[in-house]
Amino acid sequence: VIDIRKLYADGDVFTFDPGFTSTASCQSSITYIDGDLGELLHRGYPIDELADKSHYLEVCYLLLYGELPTAAQLEDFETRVTRHTMLHEQMQYFFRGFRRDAHPMAIMVGVVGAMSAFYHDSTDISDPWQREVAAIRMIAKMPTIAAWAYKYSIGQPFVYPRNNLDYAANFLHMCFAVPSEEYVVDPILAKAMDRIMMLHADHEQNASTSTVRLAGSSGANPFASIAAGIACLWGPAHGGANQACLEMLRQIGTVDNIPEYIKRAKDKDDPFRLMGFGHRVYKNFDPRAKVMKESADEVLNLLGIEDNETLKVAKELERIALEDEFFVEKKLYPNVDFYSGIILEAMGFPTSMFTPIFALSRTVGWISQWKEMIGDPQQKIGRPRQLYTGAPRRSYSEVEDR
Ligand code: ACO
Predict the structure, then answer these.
(1) What angle do CA 358, 353, 164 make, to 5 degrees?
(2) Could you read off the pLDDT of 180-231 as tens digits, one per residue?
């Protein structure tokens, strides 16, 4: 690792690294990925162990504060999050300003950005206590925002948070309860939802997290910084891949059509890519995909959907791709998005909600990374350099002379 800052201080030397494939933008002690081993650690704990033994709010505590909580610390943290799940009542009008057919991600970008207009006190980033309050507010309110974006898009009344439910169950309640019927959250689905949230909680300096850090490096408030991260996450090469992946699996339709799509993915002249495959850092199995695959089987069995064609297509596609020289050579393996859409669809979510669920799960990662950055004495405004390839200096010509 070369500390380029020293070279730069001595003269005008800098790296040209499109896509930052080999440039570290910060030091961080939150998440570690070993791309060759296919290992993901949060504060040192392997993700598969957390997915097996922990739960989302405990992982949130771990990411934010660096250690697993004691029972008392966890209770206190859960109470603080629970007490902040309501949105300012006036924010409803903000939702109502959108077209009904707006994508829920578009609503989330707008509403989260607008939070700085409703929670002024948390925008004072010089005050560590306000930074703490902003973090709790963000984690607590994001499920309400995502659920309301969904309710609004289907023309149903907003459902207020129920604070006697746990985090994931409350989210399902806000999405699926209707005033005319008693809605009881299935604990098995709540557990599956909680696991999806855990698997998406943080992933070091991915595009959206780097966006949050870059936006926040100028001193922008945390709500504005996270709104920028949500916008970045929306892209199909990043968080939008879960929606794109399920749409692709549906388009493939049956296992007989798989070879045609594999052929297209290998064709250099065809822009088609296998969605849910490949990763900038993992050159081995994404450990989250393994857990997600098991969860897909569990959830579908529990819901009595044993004969799911999309899951069959996904498994067969994975099998064929992993035996194909092209994918083996390029080290392209299924990523977290490959199976998540199948589970979310089985739970009753439309594809447009997949990326909002990713966003609400990733909020803790964004806010933990933002807090780490703000508290870092080495922190500077993010300001990449460029290699200029435009015209050399020239004189202005009057319009009639051009
Ligand atoms: N299908 C077919 N070929 C692929 C795929 C894919 N999914 N992914 C990469 N490749 C090929 C590229 O064509 C390229 O080939 P080349 O060397 O012959 O030009 C090579 O593998 C390397 O690909 P890059 O795009 O250079 O790799 P990069 O690290 O920039 O991109 C990315 C990683 C964006 C994830 C890419 O693999 C991709 O587009 N995957 C599909 C979208 C997706 O699933 N995104 C979710 C990522 S995980 C997350 O955000 C939660």
Answers:
(1) 75
(2) 888 899 998 999 999 999 999 999 999 999 999 999 999 999 999 999 999 9
Ligand 1: does its nearest atom lie under 6 Å from the Cβ of 263? Answer: no
Global confidence as pTM: 0.91
Model confidence at 9: pLDDT above 70: no
Q: Give the C-alpha separation, 20 to 14, whole Å.
A: 13
End-to-end CA distance of the chain: 50
14 burial (CB, 10 Å; 0-12 / 13-18 / 19+) is middle
Atom from ligand 1 closest to the CA of residue 207: 50
- Tell the burial category of 298 from Cβ atoms under 10 Å away from its Cβ (0-12, 13-18, 19+): middle
Q: Which residues are catalytic?
A: 279, 337
Q: State ipTM.
A: 0.95
- Ligand 1 pocket member 240 (CB < 6 A): no
d(CA 12, CA 336): 40
Closest CA to 144 of 170, 122, 166, 125: 170
| Dihedral sign of CA atoms 75, 44, 53, 200 in order | positive
**Segment 153-179 mean pLDDT:** 95
Q: How far apart, in Å, are the Cα atoms of 81 and each of 24, 167, 186, 213?
A: 32, 9, 22, 23
Ligand 1 pocket check for 275: Cβ under 6 Å: yes
Element spanning 66, H or E: none
For 5, the 3-state DSSP assignment is helix
Q: What single-letter DSSP state applies at residue 334?
A: B
